[in-house]
Amino acid sequence: MEIRPIFSALLRSKTGPILVALQVGLSLGILANALHIVEERRAVAARPSGLLDEASTFYFTVRNLNTDGPEQMLATIKRETDILRAVPGVVSVAQVSQMPLSRSGSNNSVAVDQRQERETAVASQYVSGDSLVKTFGLKLVEGRDFAPGEIVDVNENEQRELPKQVLVTKALADKMWPGASAIGKPVWFGTGPSALSSQVVGVVERLQSAHGEVGERGEFATIVPARLYGTPGNLYALRTEAGQRDRVMKEAEEALRKSSATPLILQAKTVEEDRKNRYRQDVALSWMLIAVSVLLLLVTCSGIVGMASLWVTQRRKQIGVRRALGARKLDILRYFIMENFMITSAGVFGGVLVGLSLNHLLVTKLEMTRLPAHYLIGGAVVFWALGILAAYGPAWRAASISPATATRSA
């Protein structure tokens, strides 16, 4: 088939083809970036927290309504920990300062050297009087867990020194000492004369921060071996046997309330709940963008079908003359499909430029990643196929028009 006659015909009536090509270009640029954002959001929402079994992990926030002194508070923490360990189905218990993805917790500036002007990173700080490696099921990739004698009792209301040992996540270790072992290295909390240091004794594969930040910062965390007391509220993390979480939550709450001579304010939450709440907006954004993408495809398909139908109506006599001169149905069908393919191709090339420009804006303003080429390639194939399929119906109707009908005057 000659391309030149088709191109000449398009130039004689430019408005329709230009509008369709613009529609395809804008749709492709938006669709590629929208699906890229959806993939990124879903990948972020599916990031492992580092916990061995999120479905079997939950935690209690317990507030004791008494006015006893700090020493009594410490004794209460130890008693409540023992009570929770005794509940059937409990694998491990740990008093901890915060939980992954709970959106409530503290961060600390960490540095390789206290003489640095700026910190190396900002890391989520987990403080626990028990083994988080055991309770969370963290995977040690280097070094060891804390020894029982390294865990210290710390009154939060008094000036205190940091414990001399610390665990760090692999992401934080790679940030602070790229290409080198972190074991034995000092971690400075803060910079300058007031900075305090601890020695790295172990590296865990992963432990997300309390706020679950996007990017590498969400994987920066430290674990400090200290049992904090002196404030009314305590937080206990529990890991249960598989399938026993809901039962254990009820029995553990009953055991805590029965053991206390004074009323307790007690709240239980699961890690699954925290994950759902943390990534609720990301999931909603993903579904919204998917809906927008589907609507864009439908609108673009409708535009191509409508324009192709209009062209068929406007060229009925031309089609009839061609049929009378010996053109086959296949020739008419091929003509209109090729015409739409050329228009769609112009839109696809423009859409690639729109997609790259839009992605550049997102990268510079919102710190997103670069748009992978397969989104544009896949989008181009989809719109080419869409253009052919959308034009097939009108083209087949055009090919089915008899010469006598097509050349009949209105």
What would you say about this model in short?
This protein is of the alpha+beta class and 410 residues long. It has helices at 3-12, 15-45, 70-85, 132-135, 170-176, 245-259, 271-278, 280-314, 316-324, 329-366, 373-399, 403-407; strands at 57-64, 90-95, 107-111, 121-128, 140-143, 152-155, 165-169, 186-189, 196-204, 221-229, 233-240, 264-270.
Poorly predicted regions: none
- Major β-sheet strand ordering: 3-4-10-7-9-8
- What percentage of residues falls in helices of 4 or more residues? 40-55%
Rg, please?
Answer: 33 Å
Distance between the termini: 31 Å
Mean pLDDT: 86
Helical run tally: 12
Strand count, sense and barrel status of the largest sheet are: 6 strands, mixed, barrel
Return the structural class. alpha+beta
Shape: elongated
E-strand count: 12
- The proportion of strand residues reads 15-25%
Order of helices and strands: HHEHEEEHEEEHEEEEHEHHHHHH
